[in-house]
């Protein structure tokens, strides 16, 4: 029989892999940004937040007496790297990355909302604050992306119309 705790621990492992995937997506993007310093600054900040999220998930997994899933972490990191590479050939790479990042942030928000429900159901009240911190950081990043997609798109269009290398 599968218990709420079993499902919760699987969710923690999945979230750990998801955050490793997020790093594998964001780090190559950050290295390629040239014409959008505000995006680079916010992405750099969120990379640091994501590293903190992984540390919090590590704490929760350690407290639960279980290991991370090395296979999931590796597979999701590879998937993230491939996703990041996929947009490098697009002439509007920065815009495509913003779309993908916004979608991924909302995926993470849903994952943390689910984990919070599972932590409550499994009786892991101590996890709530850590998971809420992760959720708040994801919401803040999604909101920033939402607020900046139009200005970013217009900056891309302006640079492109002037003949500048606007893609990144």
Automatic annotation (TrEMBL):
Gene3D superfamilies: 1.20.1260.10. Keywords: Coiled coil. SUPFAM superfamilies: Ferritin-like. Pfam families: DUF892. Residues 40-67 form a coiled coil. It comes from the Bacteria. This is Ferritin-like domain-containing protein. It comes from Devosia sediminis.
